[in-house]
Amino acid sequence: MAHKKTPKKGSGKTLLLACGALAREILALNKLNGWDCFTVECLPAQLHWYPEKIPDAVRQKIREVKSDYDRIFVLFADCGTGGLLDKVLEEEGAERIPGPHCYSFFSGNARFEQASFNEDMTSFYLTDFSVRQFEKFVWEGLGLDRHPELLATYFGNYTKVIYLAQTEDCDLQEKARSAAERLGLEYECRFTGYGDLASYMETAATARFGC
């Protein structure tokens, strides 16, 4: 009598291991597209202030959970790791969304690269997340609440704030404009939507073990 093969542990399961700053957008895309094939785990958004810690944090989480999943997609860009994150992912058998940072993949990597070499060299970028969390993530995160004299040190070489908006939200636009005023910079809003994050997640959803 033939015996059925027991499916391997984690068969068909896909993990999105993401930066906490992307959690709202990932959940919105899941709902919008009816994707129910992903498990989503997020690492703290505060890692952006310590990019040297990102590779090890990602490695540790992958090793904790990799036996439970067939595919792991990492929703971190390089994020200032200087290629070290890519080295970790190669060693651990995972892959990440292309791009140097989230500003790039929200804009569309090709479009952002061209703009950054032209008109946007002296721009400071905000996303929906960093607008919502401006006080804690930017103002307090840079210590400007305690040392306002550092404002010129941090932002003296910038000329404007560019708010890369994932959603069309008037309240967030006003908050972004207010943030620019506090930083003493000009203001511009660009609606990007979810950019390359949406297309990358669609690729993950239609992968062999995806939706």
Helices and strands in order:
Elements: E1 14-19, H1 23-33, E2 38-43, H2 54-65, E3 71-75, H3 84-92, E4 95-96, H4 102-107, H5 109-116, E5 123-126, H6 128-132, H7 134-140, H8 151-155, E6 160-165, H9 170-183, E7 186-191, H10 195-205
Parallel strand pairs: 1-2, 1-3, 3-4, 5-6, 6-7
Helix pairs in contact: 2-3
Helix content: 40-55%
Tell me the total number of β-strands: 7
**Which band does the percent of strand residues land in?**
15-25%
In total, how many domains does the architecture comprise?
2
Describe the 3D structure.
The strands form 2 sheets. The chain has a 4-stranded parallel β-sheet, with helices on both faces. Helix 3 (about 85-90) links the parallel strand 3 (about 70-75) and strand 4 (about 95). It has about 210 residues and is an alpha/beta fold. Helices cover about 40% and strands about 15% of the residues. The chain has 2 domains: about 15-100 and about 195-205; about 110-190, no CATH class. Helix 2 runs parallel beside helix 3 (about 85-90). The chain starts with 13 loop residues before the first strand and ends in a 6-residue tail after the last helix. The protein contains 10 helices and 7 strands.
